[in-house]
Amino acid sequence: MSRTVRDLVIILTVTSCCFFLNLGGTHLWDRDEPRNAGCAAEMLAASDWIVPTFNAELREHKPALTYWFMMLSYMVFGVTEFGARFPSAMFGVGTTLLTYFMGRRLFRPSVGLWAAIAISTTMMFGVASRASTPDAPLIFFSTLALAIYVWGTTTPGRTSEQTGKFVSLFPEKWGVAALLYSIMGLAVLAKGPIGLVLPTAVIGMFLLIKRLPVREQETIAPATWWSRITMMVRPFAPIHFLKTCWSMRPITAIAAVLVIALPWYILVHLKTDGEWTYGFFVKHNVGRAMNAMDGHRGNFLFYPLALIAGFFPWSIFWIPTLLDGIKQLKGNSKWSDGYLFAFCWVGVYLALFSLAKTKLPSYITPCYPGVALAVGLFVDRWVSGEFELAKIWPRLAFGSLIVVGLGVLVVIPILANIYVPDEVILGLLGFIPLVGGIVALLAAEKKQIRRAVYTTAMTAFLMSPAIFAFAADEIDEHRQVDALVEMMYQGKGVNEIDLVSFSSTEASWVFYARQPIEEYVDPQEASKVLMTRALSGPPRVLVTTRTRMRKLKPFLNSNDISIQQLPYFMEETDIVVVRPKAKIRQVSAKVSAAKVGPVKVGTARIRSATPGPVQ
């Protein structure tokens, strides 16, 4: 078996366990998963590949590419949790393979393997690769664009001197540049302008540094703070900046992205009379940059800390990786270009998203392949004996694994006792990092570096399925999603019940109810909607919470309604289902229409075409 085949077998085995094991075992997690999965289901039911809708309303949050992949998956697997998540898992595998091949190209095969193992077993990338969200497609296409850039500017390293060196700073062939930007066009279809802006900024930052005159590159360790600051801002000198931008073929970039992405943007603009365009670009792009939406805020340390947490357990090596990278850059070693490219990749995402007001850990996941490349190179060089670390760094790294393990053993049972009773056993997951950290630390103390790093890899590999396949499944049982759906329908079919809500509508309720749930915020109006209907129409059932039910009760006669409730997962209240008793006479269609007003446009069309229950 050749080395490449062996590496690919290892990578596919690891990613299959991390991304596909029990992929459809849990219900979709509120709120993003059912929104995206439900949008794809509604588009498929309506045979509409242009206008995204969820809960019979225009969904302006994201472009359509993610929904298209889900729709194709639904055609094969049905409208199921597995079908909704399958595209993300496949994109996760694809990103891992791209990381491997970039590691081979920039460094050597063993670095690619370590980088692939690292990224596939980190926490946040595991979430992205198992969730029905646009993150996995965005990460994949952004990584593919940067991989094409690496492929177009480097040559396969047949000797150690050739490895990792860029023979050109930008692809010389127009076709390669056009392909590069066309892939970014797909990223724009996945999540908007950041699919072009951020990968381009990564390449641009790398070029700004590499294109500096030789005399400036040689001044790597300035003597004064002023000279250090001057070195930091010198790449952004106006003339140098503009020349670098022009060298990146901006006309080709704009043309390629417009050819790929513009047709759909025009169609959705026309079909929604500009409503989708305004909502997406103004509310969800400019708005998130200028304001902290939905309470998602943080300071300048938010993303560095999020990266350390999200890249765990491999982030235990972040300090020695950073120090080794700086040392290689100062020495202008054969690894310096690769390290610089990886650092630019990570730095651009951290810096630009830190400027935005709305902050979420998932925003920086497209830089994870860059982190993996840097960590993979450090680990491979350390294992190969190319340098020795001071004892403090292995002790801090593996000691942090031990601390996390102890923290899980202590904290998780306490939290489980509060939120998910009878699941205290989940605290035993802490034994994985605890034992792994102890074994790795003892090995490092004996200078058995290979054994220490292999133990870390096995710890990471065991943690991923333990959390995503086992722990998540145990927690999901307490959400009682199926019980809620049964409570709403009580054995009746989708078209036999008309669902409404009062001041509370979870996306998972809509997805699993398999029909839109119209929400009312006025208690008097909600009570009228519940108690009146057309003679030929289906009975209405109202869903709300125990807290909001207090506002609704004064407008309802307790003798005319039946109330059922069940615990609201992770909330200090209950979900309440209210339905009129069978003995209540319904008013005429004319009176109902006069009191209640028209039903939301499109509700009946989407409900009648929506697929059946999740298998």
From TrEMBL:
<feature type="transmembrane region" description="Helical">
    <location>
        <begin position="396"/>
        <end position="419"/>
    </location>
</feature>
<keyword id="KW-0472">Membrane</keyword>
<dbReference type="InterPro" id="IPR050297">
    <property type="entry name" value="LipidA_mod_glycosyltrf_83"/>
</dbReference>
<dbReference type="GO" id="GO:0005886">
    <property type="term" value="C:plasma membrane"/>
</dbReference>
<feature type="transmembrane region" description="Helical">
    <location>
        <begin position="251"/>
        <end position="270"/>
    </location>
</feature>
<keyword id="KW-1003">Cell membrane</keyword>
<feature type="transmembrane region" description="Helical">
    <location>
        <begin position="113"/>
        <end position="129"/>
    </location>
</feature>
<feature type="transmembrane region" description="Helical">
    <location>
        <begin position="65"/>
        <end position="82"/>
    </location>
</feature>
<feature type="transmembrane region" description="Helical">
    <location>
        <begin position="300"/>
        <end position="319"/>
    </location>
</feature>
<feature type="transmembrane region" description="Helical">
    <location>
        <begin position="339"/>
        <end position="356"/>
    </location>
</feature>
<dbReference type="Pfam" id="PF13231">
    <property type="entry name" value="PMT_2"/>
</dbReference>
<keyword id="KW-0808">Transferase</keyword>
<keyword id="KW-0812">Transmembrane</keyword>
<dbReference type="GO" id="GO:0009103">
    <property type="term" value="P:lipopolysaccharide biosynthetic process"/>
</dbReference>
<dbReference type="GO" id="GO:0103015">
    <property type="term" value="F:4-amino-4-deoxy-L-arabinose transferase activity"/>
</dbReference>
<feature type="transmembrane region" description="Helical">
    <location>
        <begin position="136"/>
        <end position="154"/>
    </location>
</feature>
<feature type="transmembrane region" description="Helical">
    <location>
        <begin position="7"/>
        <end position="25"/>
    </location>
</feature>
<keyword id="KW-0328">Glycosyltransferase</keyword>
<dbReference type="InterPro" id="IPR038731">
    <property type="entry name" value="RgtA/B/C-like"/>
</dbReference>
<dbReference type="GO" id="GO:0010041">
    <property type="term" value="P:response to iron(III) ion"/>
</dbReference>
<keyword id="KW-1133">Transmembrane helix</keyword>
<feature type="transmembrane region" description="Helical">
    <location>
        <begin position="174"/>
        <end position="207"/>
    </location>
</feature>
<protein>
    <submittedName>
        <fullName>Undecaprenyl phosphate-alpha-4-amino-4-deoxy-L-arabinose arabinosyl transferase</fullName>
        <ecNumber>2.4.2.43</ecNumber>
    </submittedName>
</protein>
<feature type="transmembrane region" description="Helical">
    <location>
        <begin position="425"/>
        <end position="444"/>
    </location>
</feature>
<feature type="transmembrane region" description="Helical">
    <location>
        <begin position="451"/>
        <end position="472"/>
    </location>
</feature>
<feature type="domain" description="Glycosyltransferase RgtA/B/C/D-like">
    <location>
        <begin position="62"/>
        <end position="212"/>
    </location>
</feature>
